[in-house]
Every structure is written in C-alpha cells, then in structure tokens.
TrEMBL record:
ABC transporter domain segment(s): 2-219
Alphabetized Pfam families for the sequence: ABC_tran
BP GO annotations: cell division
Gene symbol of the encoding locus: ftsE
GO CC term (a single one): plasma membrane
Nucleotide-binding as UniProt keyword: yes
Name the record gives this protein: ABC transporter ATP-binding protein
GO MF annotations, alphabetized: ATP binding; ATP hydrolysis activity; transmembrane transporter activity
C-alpha cells in the first residue's frame, strides 16, 4: 500500500530530514512511527499526502507514484487518504456535520448523500446529538472524534494520523484508539500513526518504524 525506495526529503536543500528512506507497508497493516522530537515524523507523513515534494527516490501510495505529483493526480492520491492531526483542524465556521461533509463534497458527492454519510459517521463516533454544534462548542476529545469521522467519510484506503491523541486525556485517547482500531479491523483500512506513546493493550497486531538522524528503521 505504501512503498518507499530511497526517498530523500528536505525543506531547504541544505539538510535532508529523511535520507535513503526504504520501507514497505502492506494493505491493512497498522503502523506506528516513532522517533525523537524533530526527527522528521510529521515531514514523512506530509510526503505521503503530497504536502511536501519527494526530493529523490520513489514513493508509491496505493499504486500511485508520488514523486513529482501535482494537479489531478494529487487529487486522486488524496482521495485514497484520510488525515487526522493532533490539533483536529476542524473548520470553526462550519457545524460538525458540515465538517464531515467536506471531503465528500470535494469528491463530488451530492449534498444529500454527503449529509446522510456524515450522519452515519456521527452516530459511529457517538456524536449524533452534537450534529448542529460548532467545533468550539465541543471538548477536545469530541473534536478529535469528529476529525476521525471526517477522515473516514470518503472511504479512504489509508488513514494517516499525526499524534492524534497528543492533546487528549486517557479516556478520550482510548476512544480515538478504538475508532482507529475499528477502521483497521472492520473496514480493512491501512493505518499509519505517528505517536510518542504507543497505546498499551491495543489488542491488534501492529508494526513499528522509527526515525533517527534521518534514517527510517524497523523497531523489532
Ligand atoms: N516548514 C518547514 N520548513 C523548514 N523546516 C521545517 C519545516 N517543518 C519542519 N521543519 C524541520 O524539519 C525537521 C523535522 O520536523 P518534523 O516536524 O517532521 O519533526 P517531528 O519528528 O514530527 O517532530 P515532533 O515530534 O516534535 O512533532 C525539524 O528540524 C524541523 O525544524
């Protein structure tokens, strides 16, 4: 599902954040990515959804080459991916129902279908009673559950999450881990999560990668 061959990532050409990155993530795997602060975890995730260019090497996501990607191909790439951030990144001017409708509308679904799907997902994350609320009327944990629903809305093949529980208390973090686990187990979605703290008792098989001095390696 994700195949990296000798990828190099940089912001300014003076220093490679990721060097000679080689790894392979199979469909339906659950992957954690660790490493010290500043080691390049978020940078690596950004390369997956075309937010920063691949400087050298090849990166295939769901069969699509990411090197040099832009325009229509980038839109197609993002169709396969749902993204979750530490700080939720919901649109404050939209209700939470409307937030979940965003990826559906972008992908060409009608208002009616988008609304129906958003409400199914709101029920899934147990927030139906908040459909008309705005993000700033919700707790952080609730906002992150909306972000998970939004990431799932367009039936992506891959979920990418950058410290999804970093701002949450243990109770809310558990709810988010369970939603990600369900997406992986029940929907067969490949899940890639950057986290400093791998949850104990996740209850599913997972693999761990780590980044040190720009090098990506497998944690055994
Ligand atoms: N937009 C940017 N422009 C230039 N340099 C950047 C940019 N974003 C990140 N960096 C640098 O790239 C390096 C890796 O940053 P990145 O955010 O990927 O690390 P991280 O492992 O996710 O860190 P953390 O665990 O603290 O979130 C850091 O040295 C950082 O300063």
């Amino acid at each position: 599902m994700i195949e990296a061959t000798n990828i190099y990532l940089t912001y300014d050409d003076n220093k490679y954040i990721i060097k000679k990155g080689n790894f392979s993530i199979k469909p339906k795997e659950f992957i954690f990515i660790g490493g010290n602060s500043g080691s390049g975890k978020s940078t690596l995730l950004k390369s997956f959804y075309g937010e920063i260019p691949i400087k050298h090497g090849n990166l295939k996501i769901a069969g699509q080459e990411v090197f040099g990607i832009g325009g229509k191909k980038l839109r197609l790439l993002r169709k396969n991916i749902g993204i979750i951030f530490q700080d939720y990144k919901l649109v404050n001017e939209f209700t939470i129902e409307e937030n979940i409708m965003i990826p559906l509308k972008i992908n060409g679904y009608s208002n009616e279908v988008s609304k129906e799907q958003a409400n199914k997902l709101l029920a899934h994350v147990r927030l139906s009673h908040r459909a008309g609320y705005y993000p700033n009327e919700l707790s952080g944990g609730e906002q992150q559950r909306v972000a998970v629903a939004r990431a799932l809305a367009h039936n992506p093949k891959i979920i990418i999450a950058d410290e999804p529980t970093g701002n949450l208390d243990d109770y809310s973090a558990d709810l988010v881990w369970n939603l990600l686990k369900g997406a992986n187990e029940q929907l067969g979605i490949t899940v890639v999560v950057v986290t400093h703290r791998v949850p104990r008792n996740l209850g599913i098989k997972f693999r761990q990668l780590s980044i040190d001095d720009g090098i990506i390696y497998e944690v055994s």
